[in-house]
């Protein structure tokens, strides 16, 4: 897989993912917070499948 996300995009996704997962424990405590695993995983990998389908790249080209 190629990296198609820039560093700012990855940081934002990681923050959103952690916040959503934290809501499972301290917020309304619903299972919907586990959806935060998706942005957290895409931030860790650096590849967004939706970006690949749409032809979007937010990373700098070398």
Describe this structure in words.
The chain crosses the membrane at residues 12-28, 34-54. It comes from Marinobacter nauticus (Marinobacter hydrocarbonoclasticus). Pfam families: YgaP-like_TM (PF11127). The structure is a single chain. By secondary structure, the chain is mainly alpha-helical. The protein has one domain (7-54). It is 56% helix and 0% strand. It is built from three helices and no strands. Helix 1 (7-26) runs antiparallel to helix 2. The longest helix has 20 residues, at 7-26. The radius of gyration is 13 Å and the shape is elongated.
How are the elements arranged and paired?
Elements lengths: L6 H20 L10 H9 L3 H6 L8
Protein name: Inner membrane protein YgaP-like transmembrane domain-containing protein
Organism: Marinobacter nauticus (Marinobacter hydrocarbonoclasticus)
Pfam family, one: YgaP-like_TM
